[in-house]
Design goal:
The structure is a single chain. With 288 residues, the chain is mainly α. The protein has one domain (3-118, 145-236). It has helices at 3-18, 21-27, 32-57, 67-90, 93-100, 103-114, 121-139, 149-172, 178-199, 209-233, 239-245, 248-261, 267-287. α1 (3-18) runs antiparallel to α10, α3 (32-57) crosses α10 and α9 packs across α10 (209-233). The protein is globular. 54% of the residues are buried.
């Protein structure tokens, strides 16, 4: 099968996987940054096993190649998760997820300036339609009890950090396997997050078995499965299109929040969700 089709399926599956993150964060018994730390740490054993098996099948050309960029990706992702998890605690799931997914704007600029990517005008139309749809999806929650200015501001900052992470991963996939990228960047990310969580005086250990299950679910579904699928996909798709397609995440997250937390979607938000999907289709035509 065409690798591009596999990549597209992986990208959408990864977006749905990471859409569960706000749900797990809401359920977590530990602090927001500590939750991010456990997300990375609990995924590392599986990522290490994957990397070993992959390298037995196809040894890397250089064992240290890509380390600095992977470390930078880890730092960006650590900042992204720490800031986003606080945003989720301070504002609604829909707001936090939408604002974090303003990353396509930053990624498109970065991909043009740093990676030399070019897109057709229809791509920008698609990006605009998707962003408008995501804004409509968020709209009914603005001004409500869950809409806190600080939380929304942290959501915007999250978009900048996540864009930096996506651009690093795109550059790394030119020479590194998905497993190596996820292992190296994840190790760096966990190493950054733990001291931050301790310095902020957060609760580090869950009090109950269910608390550990939540953290394990976050690690397996969102980090190991979701982010790994996305990292695989960006090797075969442009960084700009990949970032726009991840706007599927707020659609899925809003649906999950509606089902689990009663954060109901108004008719205008359903229109917004449809617009996100239409925009992704247009963006694909502009980069195909």
């Amino acid at each position: 099968m065409n690798p591009g089709r596999w990549a597209l399926a992986a990208l959408f599956a990864g977006a749905i996987g990471i859409a569960f993150a706000p749900i797990f964060v809401r359920w977590s018994e530990v602090g927001p940054v500590a939750t991010a730390f456990w997300r990375l740490l609990l995924a590392l054993p599986l990522l290490a096993l994957w990397a070993v098996l992959e390298e037995r099948r196809q040894p890397p050309s250089g064992t240290t190649a890509g380390w600095p960029m992977a470390m930078l990706a880890g730092v960006f992702f650590a900042a992204d998760l720490a800031v986003w998890h606080w945003s989720i605690r301070l504002t609604s799931v829909a707001n936090a997820t939408f604002l974090a997914n303003l990353a396509p704007v930053v990624v498109t600029i970065g991909a043009w300036a740093l990676l030399g990517e070019r897109a057709k005008p229809i791509f920008f139309a698609g990006m605009l339609v998707s962003l408008t749809g995501a804004a409509l999806l968020m709209g009914a929650n603005l001004g409500g009890p869950g809409a806190v200015l600080l939380g929304d501001g942290l959501g915007v900052l999250t978009a900048v950090f996540y864009a930096g992470y996506q651009l690093c991963v795109k550059r790394l996939r030119d020479s590194q396997s998905t497993a190596r990228i996820m292992l190296f960047s994840g190790t760096a990310c966990a190493a950054v997050l733990l001291p931050v969580a301790l310095a902020m005086g957060e609760t580090i250990l869950p009090a109950t078995l269910s608390g550990w299950i939540v953290l394990l679910g976050l690690a397996l579904v969102c980090q190991f499965a979701g982010q790994s699928l996305i990292a695989y996909a960006v090797a075969h798709l442009s960084a700009s299109f990949s970032s726009v397609s991840l706007l599927l995440q707020p659609v899925a997250a809003a649906a999950f929040a509606w089902l689990l937390f009663g954060e109901a979607l108004a008719p205008l938000q359903w229109i917004g969700a449809a617009a996100v999907l239409a925009g992704i289709w247009l963006a694909r035509r502009g980069t195909g």
